[in-house]
Amino acid sequence: MKSLGATVVDVDYSIFLEAGRMLFDGPLLAERLSSIKPFLKDHSNDIHSSVRVIVEKAKQYSAVDLCHEYYRITELQALARLLFENIDFMMVPTAPTIYSIAEVKANPVKLNTNMGYYTYFANILNLSVVAVPSEIRADGLPFGVCFVGTAKSDFSLMVLGQKWQQSNDLYLGHHAGLIN
After folding, report:
1. Is residue 156 part of a domain?
2. How far apart are CA 137 and CA 26, in angstroms?
3. Is the pLDDT reported for residue 121 higher than 50?
4. Tens-digit pLDDT profile for residues 58-92
5. How many domains does one find in the chain?
6. How far apart are alpha carbons 102 and 106 in whole angstroms?
7. Measuring CA to CA, how many Å separate 50 from each of 82, 111, 121?
8. Helix (H, G, I), strand (E, B) or coil at 51
9. For residue 159, what are the domain limits?
10. Is 143 in a helix, a strand, or coil?
11. Reduced to 3 DSSP states, what percent helix, strand and coil does the chain have, rounded to the nearest 5?
12. Does any domain span residue 76?
């Protein structure tokens, strides 16, 4: 990013981490439960057990808990807006690691939660995110990055992603040997 003219600064990631955790753990799960409750009632066994376990956790929370969660989301959104007054965008890995299918099947909730460590916060905080390839690792597996910006900054992030790919010689098919 420095070669593209960016000034790189560290940011406090704690607000993003807190918001991301709300997606799988907490009263905000009530939103998911409310959207599938009739189906869950009549077809519980037709829902993947991992999904069912996550969604049914919502039953342990009250409406008051959900109100407190929404108040905290409002606070976190305000903190994110303040942060983005001082930066143009944030760059994070798309995912912290890559798991095999067997690993995910053995522990789907935990590993799926880990996979979204750098991105699950986006919808909750009303942020835009664009994911782009970054490199092919030494083991042949892909590694990507996400550019995170304010709401409705998708187009600017796509332009940035394109510049990133071009500056790193990362165009479609290049690493797959499709383009010489």
Report:
1. yes
2. 36
3. yes
4. 999 999 999 999 999 999 999 999 999 999 999 99
5. 1
6. 6
7. 36, 11, 21
8. helix
9. 85-180
10. strand
11. 55, 10, 35
12. no
